[in-house]
Amino acid sequence: MDVAPTLSRNQRAPDRRPARTRAALLAAFRDLMFAQRYDRIDVAAVCARANVGRSTFYAHFSGRDALLTASMQPLLTVLAAAATGETAQLLWLLEHFWEQRRHGRVLFAPPLRQVLERTLADAILARLGPDQRLAAVQIAAAQLAAVEAWMTGAVAATPARMAARIAATANLAQ
């Protein structure tokens, strides 16, 4: 028996083009980000690599920083969750960071680091509450400093040890 949903005459299948376009823009940005400095990436280059027009880009993102934020959101969400004691995905994230550590020089170079830190602080603030801006900024800075030191070899630790240290940043909110 076929139980696949059917569409009536007046219904249309969801248009998947916007999701494909967004994915193409994110992939193009990621490729460019690891090929050149963030401050040298412009919207025109992302559009050319994704094979879309500028107006299409701006239908999805307000600018380059918004594209960066969207590309890092899944990872930053895990770090933000750790700030409130939710650590279910933290070890996975840190193992992923370790496997991709060759990209650390890109992620922690100015001005990218500042954008990431601001975005992470905002994500943490959304979890802690509006009266916790100082704690959110402090936790974001502590988390990224620890990850940067680890990924660049300034400190040695296992992913599990790093997860414990990142999880401990939740205490800064108290």
Roughly what percent helix?
55-70%
Briefly note the structural class of the backbone.
mainly alpha
Assembly context of the chains: single chain
> How much is the radius of gyration in Å?
19 Å
* Uncertain residue ranges: none
Separation, N- and C-terminal Cα atoms: 57 Å
What share of residues are in beta strands?
Answer: under 5%
Shape: globular
Average per-residue pLDDT, rounded, comes to 89
* Total separate domains: 2
The H/E string reads HHHHHHHHH
Write a compact overview of the structure shown.
This protein folds into two domains: 44 residues, Arc Repressor Mutant, subunit A; 110 residues, no CATH class. Helix content is 64%, strand content 0%.
Explain the overall architecture.
InterPro entries: Homeodomain-like_sf, HTH-type_Tx_Regulator, HTH_TetR. Residues 42-61 bind DNA. Pfam families: TetR_N (PF00440). This is HTH tetR-type domain-containing protein. Keywords: DNA-binding. The structure is a single chain. The chain is mainly α and 174 residues long. The chain folds into 2 domains: 17-60, Arc Repressor Mutant, subunit A (Orthogonal Bundle); 64-173, no CATH class. The protein is 64% helix and 0% strand. The chain contains 9 helices and no strands. α1 crosses α2 (43-50) and α7 (112-128) packs across α8 (133-151). The longest helix is centred in the middle third of the chain and has 19 residues, at 64-82.
What is the fold's blueprint, element by element?
Blueprint: H1 17-33, H2 43-50, H3 54-60, H4 64-82, H5 90-99, H6 104-107, H7 112-128, H8 133-151, H9 159-168
